[in-house]
Design a protein that fits this description.
mainly beta
Length: 148
């Protein structure tokens, strides 16, 4: 069967017709910034270098099937091949995370001076929800994750 999404969730997988037109966010975790102002009003970063430079992600979709969330609970760890992309200046940068490489589609692309890539992240389930609208046969789901 042809892959219908770039998203991969290991070990649970993605059932057919459960993740078309998916939406994924990638945001810094809340602890990533410890910003404060000096007595002179200057903004400073008091965070611990790269220790807290991690992502949180929300993956959501409305489709015809539910994802394989049976047996998945907060605190479980998943390997996520993201749909969302990160980008860097090709001449001076490099990917800050491993590349999502489990699909036939390439995880990188270059446009002009920039390289875009889909990261592979090890993430912990924070929360999830499912919803169905019976007569419309809309099955919606949401998965909240944070990088370990």
């Amino acid at each position: 069967m042809t892959e219908m999404t770039l998203l991969r969730l290991d070990p649970i997988g993605i059932p057919p017709y459960s993740a078309r037109n998916i939406n994924q966010t990638l945001d810094p975790i809340d602890s990533a910034a410890q910003l404060a102002r000096t007595v002179n009003g200057e903004m400073i970063d008091m965070s611990d270098g790269t220790t807290f430079r991690k992502y949180k992600s929300t993956i959501s979709c409305t489709d015809q099937q539910m994802p394989a969330l049976s047996g998945i609970w907060p605190g479980m760890t998943l390997t996520v091949d993201c749909v969302a992309e990160l980008c860097y200046l090709t001449a001076t940068g490099s990917p800050e995370r491993d590349l999502a490489d489990t699909t036939a589609d390439p995880a990188t692309r270059t446009e002009g001076n920039f390289t875009f890539y889909r990261p592979k992240l090890t993430m912990m389930v924070v929360a999830f929800s499912t919803n169905i609208t019976e007569w419309d046969c809309d099955l919606a789901w949401r998965l909240d994750l944070e990088e370990v």
